[in-house]
């Protein structure tokens, strides 16, 4: 028997409901507004009053309206056909909705109910299976989509029968399993899972160590992220967060890309919808959208939907991770999600924390980031979710609560700097403030030594030190003037500029320079490090600037040339000749 209730009070999207029975935290309820069913979620229970956040506009809602509780939490439907979908925060398929504007109370099913999928069995009758075990496989946009035992099933089961290979829709029974009591359960291709609960159908979750190549030099070389790692990109308006996200989404070594646009401005979300279908996947040559899912929810949607969207995206990511796939999840922007949490906290009249954010903001962010990671499944296969969120701090203030609390949990910090963006030094990642904690892990050090070079970390740390020293000297030159510091200071400064222009700066609109494979990144780092370790002799600071500007110009031309092509080798030869003329002879 479902619990019923009556609306007692309305504070914007927060509705107080007097209930006639038991309700649970995070339970879903529908408010019946003149025949239109408004979905809501219980966020607090006090006595016989349930406080629910409504995922729709509450305009026209009145005291006395009837409410029906559903007995389950906010769930997502999981199954083949999610790829290439444009979903909202509640997993409604936006392409199935009619009209320009979303209609209140209009909910759609996210999967294609009639499409036939070519099913190939993996399990055999008699096999012992548990939640998350692979029963069969269908091809979803060239990805091996595993049909699994529902994650909600507890204990061990025996496969009684499995459907033979063939074409079936998502409702076709593909397997029958039997529990220890002899009770049989028929399973089809779809299942449901509550978004607020992590999916833990795996054997272990070791510390990630394998480099995730993004093709962005300032990330891969200086502050690498790993498969199953976490990172975040804070930056003020106009510093290039969206372009950097697009670059990582397009170029990173991932099987599945999920974009969660949680509370971004409508024009930025429209960019994703219009640009992503046109992008070509550099790994397959087909459309990138084939392996992408977009979960969109703009700033003008109710705040409760922003919170739902990040959890929906993460749960879909965990589902694909359970298939042994590498998932890249990008959330833009987690600041809007935190602002939604702040609004609901204020409406609940809870004790405010810093900047009026909830007191438990740190725990909420930590729990969410903790759901990413690299896992080993029960069958020995591996999967991962790499999560990169962007933060939009008001006025570019990196000391505000969302940035500070995210810094505590994310292992990589890519600070986008207004000053670098103003100087057109893109990507505008500040090389000194940014960091990657993975570079300190012995497992990562071992991986890098084996796959790239044993002295890679040493050269990266040297480059960072030179950049810091260059910044300090730049400040001294700014105060004392060019002729107020020794010539060797100018040499140190220009060596840091060499690293900046050749290693860090990248042209996102050039076919060659926009993506740098790790082999080429190693070549560039080795070349620049050798130049920085070379001693040069100059008469005055003007000669220093002229010489290094010429070096930088040739180095940048190399970045625009096909790796190891005749043109590339010709520029390298010019570079070597220029260096040999100026270096101090042994």
UniProtKB/TrEMBL annotation:
The keyword Translocase applies. ATP binds at residues 235-242. One of its GO terms (molecular function) is proton-transporting ATP synthase activity, rotational mechanism. It catalyses: ATP + H2O + 4 H(+)(in) = ADP + phosphate + 5 H(+)(out). It is an enzyme of class 7 (translocase). Residues 9-71 form the ATPase F1/V1/A1 complex alpha/beta subunit N-terminal domain. Residues 215-436 form the ATPase F1/V1/A1 complex alpha/beta subunit nucleotide-binding domain. It comes from the Bacteria. Its EC number is 7.1.2.2. Residues 110-196 form the ATPsynthase alpha/beta subunit barrel-sandwich domain. One of its GO terms (biological process) is proton motive force-driven plasma membrane ATP synthesis. CDD domains: ATP-synt_F1_V1_A1_AB_FliI_N, V_A-ATPase_A. HAMAP family: ATP_synth_A_arch. Produces ATP from ADP in the presence of a proton gradient across the membrane. The V-type alpha chain is a catalytic subunit. Belongs to the ATPase alpha/beta chains family. This is V-type ATP synthase alpha chain.
